[in-house]
Design a protein that fits this description.
The complex is a heterotrimer of chains A (566), B (137) and C (241). By secondary structure, chain A is of the alpha/beta class. Chain A is built from 16 helices and 21 strands. Chain A has a domain at 229-345: Flavocytochrome C3, Chain A, domain 1. Chain A has helices at residues 15-27, 63-73, 80-100, 132-144, 211-218, 246-249, 263-266, 276-291, 311-317, 319-329, 386-406, 414-428, 437-451, 458-475, 489-513, 531-534, and strands at 2-11, 33-37, 53-54, 114-115, 125-126, 149-153, 155-163, 166-174, 179-190, 223-224, 229-236, 253-255, 303-306, 338-347, 350-352, 364-366, 371-372, 455-456, 522-523, 536-541, 548-553. In chain A, the strands form 5 sheets. In chain A, strands 1, 2, 6, 7, 8, 9 and 16 form a 7-stranded mixed β-sheet that branches. By secondary structure, chain B is mostly helical. The longest helix of chain B has 29 residues, at 108-136. The chains are: A alpha/beta (566), B mainly alpha (137), C alpha+beta (241).
Chain lengths: 566, 137, 241
Amino acid sequence: MEKIKEDVLILGGGMAGLRAAIAAAEYNPKLSVGLVSKLYPLRSHSVSAEGGTSAVLNPKDSFDLHSYDTIKGSDYLGDQDAIEEFVRLVPEQIYTTDHWGCPWSRNPDGTISQRDFGALSFPRATFAADKTGFHVMQTLFSRAMKYNIHFYNEYFATKLILNGGQLNSVTTIDLRTGNFVVFQGKALIFAMGGAGRLYQFATYAHSVTGDGDGIAYRAGIPLKDMEFIQFHPTGLVPSGILITEAARSEGGYLLNSKKERFMGTYAPHKFETASRDVVSRAIMWEIEAGRGVKGEYGDMEYVYLDMRHIADKLDERLPMITEIAKKFNGIDAHTELVPVHPATHYTMGGIDSNVKTTTSVPGVFVAGENACVSIHGANRLGSNSTNECLALGNVAGIAAAEWAVSHSVPDLDVAQVNDEEKRIWEDMLKRDGGENIAKIREDLRINMDKNVGVFRTADPLRNSLKNIAALKERYEKITIQDKADTFNLELEWAFEVGFMLDLAEIITAGALQRTESRGAHYRRDFPDRDDANFMKHTIATYSKDGPVLTYRPVVVTKWQPTVRSY
Amino acid sequence: MVEENVKNLREGPMGWAKFYRKGIGYFAFAMHRFSGLVIVFYLYLHLFVLSHLLVGKATYNSLVTSVTYGPFDSFLVLDVLLALVIFYHGANGTRLALNELGIGLENNKAMFYVFEVISMVLLGIFLYYAYMFLGAS
Amino acid sequence: MEELVVEVTRTDEKGNQKLQSFNVPKDKVSTVLEALLYIKENMDPSLSFRYSCRMEICGSCGMEIDGKPHMACSTTIESLKSDKVKVAPMKHYKVIRDLAVDMEGFFGKYKEVKPYIIRDDENGKYESEILQTPAQFDEFIDYSMCIKCGICMAACPIEGSDPDYLGPAPLTAIWRYVADSRDQGAKYRLEVASGPEGTSRCHFVGECTEACPKGVDPSYAIQKLRGSMVKYEFQSLFRRH
């Protein structure tokens, strides 16, 4: 067993994690900052963010307008005080990253350019072509080279150990050596991203398996609003690779099998640039009505994204998706139609937090997709995730650094650490029931796609709970065939699937209990929003018999819930 | 993982001789190395022969005769190969020097072909005159 | 059913190498990465390799495919035009296990070139952008597309004989910042570039450019860097010290 102590410990090397690390290192250069990630930071899924990041930079725009768009997008489930504070934090982050080298796309006069995006009332999506996440990540990672930040790359975190409700340590496996490494920090920041790979057809990287949510949940930190999973309207068929929303905000159309532009029926004002939940449902309805295209990509029915009439814009403003369509599907977007289908894209829920990024455990902070502040409520607005990572990553980094200055590293809880070591090497690795971990994962994903997808109904949800219980039993009987110490990815998979099973249960249970339709959560048996009973967040807490769900009211300041239409 | 057991896939100069699925730039590079070595080898050979002048006229003359023509005049072929190597190296070297100054950078591959073709034409002219010279003597 | 034969050069924890072939049904996979995942999920769970985004942007899955370094995720089975594919770890790196190689050295070199904007007026306050015209923007944007996959290092023959040579990606990073109008750190960077392990080691082979999955053109960047280095050194002759 190896022990490593840091002042500020950060789990996750994506955008929020890197931003927090830089913020902590800048706050006080004497602090030692450790960043633990299961990948090299640049391999994180944040690099895949495409379209843009909303920020109020133009004097004609206003913070209130940005807040209102976010709140309307969230279907009034976002906490309005948090949103109002959050939008004020964003512009500085755009300028900061600009000073650090991020190539934000420019206007002819040299200022930062902005473009329209889904469900925005002012074109405020700041962008770096259609590689926004990529460029911001490169900028942050490169900037992090300047500070004395200790990178612990390819360490897989297995457990958060709390002692009497206080932060104690985090246990990890060093994938390179197979060593059991225990990290201790005065303050800890969770920035481990979402849980999108619970689904088969997802825009997510393979590595987004909800580890952060799973670890926190098992340690007793409550999760919030997990049933809200965003489906992005345009995942490329068959791989699920994201085709950015900018494709539609720049003027792209969605066409059904009759080559008709169908969005007018569902969003008469905004058409294709309505919010993501609305467009995703519209596509699914079209497919259900028999107007989906069934063709060369197996059983999956899809619709077309038509960018032929904006062909002249593609190379400058949408180079990446043009390249992707060409490389992966052999389709020339200038002259051909691109097959798309709604794909899992964002986990609105996460560790219960607030705009100060604190959690129920003192000294533990959370930022990025891992957190549920809640800014995004029931549906995240496109272009509101990268700015959250930057703004709240910064807040978390400073908060953690402040905390670290006035606190000390606790004595290691050796008993719990030893238990965890035993669990890994004597329980997990030596289980021998013959079940294949990859099969369990596949079955879980099929179940989630089928029963807890865009449309939800009581019976399939109940079935899903049964399936998950059965999968959990099978999980107890897995055999990890790879016994090697070095780079044992099968062992990593086993832990990931453990977290995924927990989260799938929470999501399904939350969806079953929320008998209304709000944002991304759509119940066929309850198609209307129910503000009287469900203007509240779902809080899920761990218990041995499954998640315990409680509710907390939404904070409303200026904007009373009204009918939401685009 | 034990550090010593880890395989290092660094091939060193031996890797230079592998042309499978490599581009023309790689060919130019590898041949440049090879021709450079040949030219250096020739330089030492040349100095070795010249150094016999220190011994005396007779020794030098007999050595020059033997290394120039060899058995059945076969060493003349080596002379032709030497000229080939020098012309190749010179042309590619000129291209690289120009490229490094930023001249023709965009079309460096086309430039390689053009320079080599020119140098081979020059080589042909050179060999023709060399042959004429030999025939005359 | 048509099958694809995947021949993998495997290395176990102790450093022993062997070749192992797997037959993967062609209709289940569309890229080399999917083929490897198929093998790991259905045939041999002990096969190790890095992967993440599967859309050629994270830079995880660089490996040697049929003798040339490629991203596994963007190499489609169709593009192989064959029923057999040879997969091996990237050259010039240490192998950790199977197809996973040690990237520490690569990122160490990247860190060495100070790959971030250096400004004299930096004070921690960021209240507006630094103006940059589209023309200035175009000077460096192509070189900022590097995904740090390390494929160029595997393609570079100099990297194969001189482990200390900075290599295509770090040198391109130098040029990316030197060419950025917002940067004022050219002095330090050009010193690194003109150092013993800098641009002078490059022989303009161009294999890095051939191999780069994102079309960054490192060899061109290095030549441009050479030009600005000469200019810089020349000017410094007339500068008062």
